[in-house]
Amino acid sequence: MTYCLGVFLDDGLVMASDSRTNAGVDQIAKVRKMSIFEQPGQRIITILSAGNLGTTQAVITLLKENLNKPESGRDLFSAPTMFEVARMVGGQMRDVLKHDGDYVRMHGDPNATFLVGGQIQGESHRLFQIYSAGNFIEASSRSQLLQIGETKYGKPILDRAICDKTSLDTAAKLALLSYDATIRSNLSVEGPIDLLRYKKDSFSAENLSKYRRDDPYWVSLRDGYSDGLMSVIAALPNPPRAGGK
């Protein structure tokens, strides 16, 4: 399994993915699930993937092979808008599932999901979630969070704290805390965590970081959050006893 996160903010995007993939308790590996397609000054497209590893890798590989080939109908560098990028990714997944799906289905689930975020010159930054059917939804100022994979453990802290005015740095901290909560509760999610803070109109992936579990910053963030949380809990009033005593 996996956990991927996209946050749509006024200032830009925060996108993060873990690295664990498994096909059983004795087949655990680490795979990067973030792919970046960049034309400096013109466009940046980030794709996060979850689901069947064969499907996701086939989709990403085919998209890479079709770069600068407009005739393919899947050239991310010729797409005029991020909406068209999302359509291309969804269409590529349909092609892969049409080609491989029936064979894979005899052994397991062939489906996959993607988060696609970025910006193309001439429009603002955008963020999409692509379902296994190839259709998709778009994030907005009223719906900032898109998540795929093991979402339930890391979602509450984001729901409580994220809004459209949240800064990129604050959202990045919350994203790492969301991953910490998920890793604590679910063995199918693990680092390293790839985290991109994309500032709108920068058309650059320069703020891309990788965090291992023993990264000094992530350790201090986890410890500070845990200590602060316990301090807040200790300061809150105790529940009243039965009978009001």
Describe the structure.
This protein has 245 residues and is of the alpha+beta class. It has one domain (3-233): Aminohydrolase, N-terminal nucleophile (Ntn) domain (Glutamine Phosphoribosylpyrophosphate, subunit 1, domain 1). Helices cover 33% and strands 27% of the residues. The chain is built from five helices and twelve strands. It has helices at 53-65, 82-105, 155-161, 168-185, 216-235; strands at residues 3-9, 12-17, 20-22, 28-30, 34-39, 43-51, 112-120, 126-130, 136-138, 145-149, 193-199, 208-211. The strands form three sheets. A five-stranded antiparallel beta sheet has the order 10-1-2-11-12, with helices on one face. The protein has a five-stranded antiparallel beta sheet with strand order 5-6-7-8-9, covered by helices on one side. Helix 1 (53-65) crosses helix 2. It is globular and about 75 Å long.
Secondary-structure map:
Blueprint: E1 3-9, E2 12-17, E3 20-22, E4 28-30, E5 34-39, E6 43-51, H1 53-65, H2 82-105, E7 112-120, E8 126-130, E9 136-138, E10 145-149, H3 155-161, H4 168-185, E11 193-199, E12 208-211, H5 216-235
Antiparallel strand pairs: 1-2, 1-10, 2-11, 3-4, 5-6, 6-7, 7-8, 8-9, 11-12
Helix pairs in contact: 1-2, 3-4, 4-5
CATH superfamily: Aminohydrolase, N-terminal nucleophile (Ntn) domain
Given helix and strand content, the structural type is: alpha+beta
Shape: globular
H/E series, N to C? EEEEEEHHEEEEHHEEH
Largest sheet descriptor: 5 strands, antiparallel
Radius of gyration: 19 Å
> How many separate domains?
1
Q: Percent of residues in helical segments? A: 25-40%
Distance between the termini: 48 Å
**β-sheet strand percentage:** 25-35%
What is the CATH class?
Alpha Beta
Strand order of the largest sheet: 10-1-2-11-12
Question: Low-confidence stretches at least 5 residues in length (pLDDT < 50)?
Answer: none
What value does the average pLDDT take? 91
